[in-house]
Amino acid sequence: MNTPSNTVPEAPINSPAITPAALPATRLFYWSLRRELWEYRSIYVAPLAGAGVVMLAFGFVLAALPHTMRKLSSLDPAQQHKALAHPYDIAAALIMGAAFIVSLFYSLDALYGERRDRSILFWKSLPVSDLTTVLAKATVPLVVLPLLSFAIAFVIESLMILLSSLVLLAGGLSVATLWTQVQLYPTLLGLLYHLVTVHMLWYAPLYAWLLLVSAWSRRAPFLWAVLPPLAVGFFEKIAFHSSHFADLLLYRVGGGSDDMQGNFDMHPGMHGGLGSFLSSPGLWFGLIAAAIFLAAAARLRRYREPI
Amino acid sequence: MTVIEARGLRKAFGTTIALDGVNLRVDEGRILGLVGPNGAGKSTALNAILGLTQYQGELRVLGRDPWAERDQLMRDVCFIADVAVLPRWMKVWQALDYLAGVHPRFDRAKAEGFLAKTDIKRKSKVRELSKGMVTQLHLALVMAIDARLLVLDEPTLGLDILYRKQFYDSLLNDYFDRSRTIVVTTHQVEDVQNVLTDLMFINHGRIVLNCSMEEFETRYLEVSVKPEQVAAARALRPMHERQVLGRSIFLFDDGAQRTNNQKIGRQQLVALGEVRTPSIADLFVAVLGDKPGGTASQAQGVAQ
Q: How far apart are CA B169 and CA B195, in angstroms?
């Protein structure tokens, strides 16, 4: 990776009193993010492992591909599409799912692990503010993992369709049906859209909540993240016979606003479109909640000691 | 130039008082040893100085309020808090890269130079290094930072005597100069007796002794008194008396604070027996009392 220069400008020998200017905030942020990637190697290992599984399984698809193509003409178009495009959909889902699970576990550990292993004392001995640290940690699930899973899916699926085409050409078959049925790049664009709208924006308060719990809890952050929301939901159910809070949570976890019905389908045309997504209040309330959670996590880190 | 200035520094954990109105002033170019029983408030004082804990009272470190400005302060302050706070997953080269990335005063070449004198490999992870090597690594990182104040909280805890000696030797030879200031807490006081320029005893959150080492050497005298002279020695009002192998060891405070303002004088003591400078440990016992742990018992439970 191309890194900012490490050299600190040498002060003239006879003027040791010169105070070096503070480093730019972007550089502190960059190195804070770097260290997250060093510490949590699962950030890239897990999606790559998912890609590895996809490629292994795809070997079987490739072996049977000429046979699949030959009997394809007897199927109706919907089944044709299913037979050819299915592996690509599963590949994207697997890589994205692996990255999502890593996001959840990462967020829960990010501000808890450094207190448990006492390394927070080392991090705090350096001129990096708590806010910079928390923002760098939040960047991992909010930006790094969605973009990384897209990049991996892009490479893997391009490789898949390339290999398929080679196999077909070698067998003297046409690749036209494959390309029209798979629609690789429009589908990948849909995946990117889904990652940005759902994984980055819609889920932002979930990651921020997990980071807040990880900054706060002294033990068992997973229980603290999950049980109190459940308790509030059950309390409301018993006390008031209503389920507003539970609905709110399901609405958040289960994929968004009414406008975003079917949003787990990756085609952008399948739901209300970007306009209605951006104008849904749920999105903006979620982002405000995320900002509050992150600010609280940064504030908490200041008070936190090793556990 | 004053590096640390505290006035009426207080900190309580629930009902336990960790710092009880501490006044403290450390000037540039000093090496201050902060000595006290467990739970006396040493670590709390250091944490307040480093901006790791809130406090009441007035505290300025290099002219800054540590709690409000920790990240800016850390450009000029380094600390080694305890042993083993370096992240265990980190590789040596990552530590060098990271420090070069975030610290404006880190001199990477210098750190590599210190590391070259050790057996630490660039590709090793911290978890693969021995405790002594982790401390060497941390010290190499910290000494390569051109900081004005270095805070060491039990930096040599759990290390064998060779590593401990090496630690203080390199600190004095390769790091310390009159423009830097070091504050160190340790229980291994014998290691630092010849390192310190100033000594401070702290107990129950209060400073009970504060003197420079020059003062320490002229003011406190230990006399191994012959049995027939014991009565004469007691008449001079020693601050402490103990028996070692059948001889009585008396410790005298020959400072100006003696009630009659009359110095005893070394001459008079030489007549009683062999006179020497006491160890910090012996003075500590004399000042804080003999009961092992007894003085600290009330303060137990105070956070580190």
A: 9
